[in-house]
């Protein structure tokens, strides 16, 4: 009976974590560049139950032959294995701000081993001099004229340098070239992740590589195509309707596990207070 407690408890914990993930997706439905999280729930390894049986052999002194008869497999519960961002393109929203730019996916190669499609990011410089990657192009100019992300990280160009502008009167071409007074200032640094599932999320729509190495720039990958739209931002790719449906499903699954747990509890209470008296 106690095995049932553990199985039901694992189901409640898995659904609770899924609810937290979906709630976070809903909270970021209006966050530019946000990529929805998706989860995978797996079962723990099954156990094989067997019963010990005894057969009496009719001999002169009597003989009991013991054996093991298999009953069947028993599931020991479920757990949330991992959460991964969904890197599909979000819709574009026009802002008419010259500092806002949106990445539009073109052809992005697919990894032959995993079947996962690659994706592209803006490149940022973090506080330690390392690199962050983001799809949020809601940029701004700081007091020194440097192009920065909403969190204050510096936007890097294709050579890994910070981008300095005289003001917000500039133009960005579809290939990412920044022009000010018809002069080329810099080219936005766009990086390509062939295996985006290996990136680690850092919050605020930022990603880093597992080993700290920098991603390749798209300039070194001839197969990758993309374009940049100035005056637009990429919206969150969270599907609010589907997320609400998934959220209600997770609530129902949690409640179902809760009712089973309460049934186990009542059975144990009866066994202790009533059967025990007999």
Describe this entry's structure for a reader.
This protein is of the alpha+beta class and 278 residues long. The protein folds into 2 domains: 1-29 and 41-80 and 239-275, no CATH class; 87-234, no CATH class. Helix content is 22%, strand content 34%. The chain has 2 helices and 20 strands. Strands 7, 8, 11, 15, 16, 17 and 18 form a 7-stranded antiparallel sheet that branches. Strands 12-13-14 form a 3-stranded antiparallel sheet, with no helix packed on it. Strands 1-4 form a two-stranded antiparallel sheet. Strand 12 (171-172) and strand 13 form a beta hairpin. Helix 1 packs antiparallel against helix 2 (240-275). The longest helix is centred in the C-terminal third of the chain and has 36 residues, at 240-275. The chain is elongated and about 110 Å long. The chain starts with a helix and ends with a helix.
Alpha-carbon distance between the termini? 20 Å
Q: Please count the beta strands (DSSP E, at least 2 residues each).
A: 20
Secondary-structure element order, as H and E? HEEEEEEEEEEEEEEEEEEEEH
The percent of residues in helical segments reads 10-25%
| Gross morphology | elongated
Poorly predicted spans: none
Domain module count: 2
Structural class: alpha+beta
What does the main sheet amount to? 7 strands, antiparallel
User: Taking all residues together, what is the mean pLDDT?
Assistant: 90
Share of residues in strands: 25-35%
The whole-angstrom Rg is 28 Å
Query: Please, how many helices?
Result: 2
């Amino acid at each position: 009976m106690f095995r049932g407690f553990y199985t039901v408890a694992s189901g409640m914990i898995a659904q609770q974590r899924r609810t937290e993930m979906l709630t976070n997706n809903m909270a970021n439905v209006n966050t530019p560049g946000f990529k929805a999280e998706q989860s995978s729930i797996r079962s723990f390894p099954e156990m094989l139950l067997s019963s010990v049986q005894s057969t009496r052999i009719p001999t002169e002194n009597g003989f009991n032959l013991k054996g093991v008869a298999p009953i069947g497999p028993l599931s020991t519960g479920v757990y949330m294995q991992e959460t991964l961002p969904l890197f599909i393109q979000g819709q574009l929203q026009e802002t008419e701000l010259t500092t806002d730019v949106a990445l539009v996916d073109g052809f992005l190669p697919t990894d032959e081993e995993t079947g996962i499609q690659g994706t592209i990011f803006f490149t940022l410089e973090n506080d330690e001099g390392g690199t962050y990657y983001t799809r949020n192009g809601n940029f701004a100019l700081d007091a020194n004229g440097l192009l920065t992300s909403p969190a204050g990280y510096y936007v890097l160009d294709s050579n890994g340098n910070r981008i300095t502008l005289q003001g917000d009167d500039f133009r960005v071409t579809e290939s990412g070239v920044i022009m000010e007074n018809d002069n080329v200032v810099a080219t936005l640094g766009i990086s390509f992740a062939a295996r985006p599932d290996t990136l680690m999320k850092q919050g605020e729509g930022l990603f880093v590589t597992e080993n700290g190495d920098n991603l390749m720039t798209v300039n070194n990958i001839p197969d990758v195509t993309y374009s940049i739209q100035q005056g637009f931002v990429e919206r969150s790719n969270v599907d609010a309707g589907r997320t609400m449906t998934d959220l209600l499903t997770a609530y129902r699954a949690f409640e179902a596990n809760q009712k089973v747990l309460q049934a186990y509890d009542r059975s144990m209470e009866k066994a202790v207070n009533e059967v025990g008296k007999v």
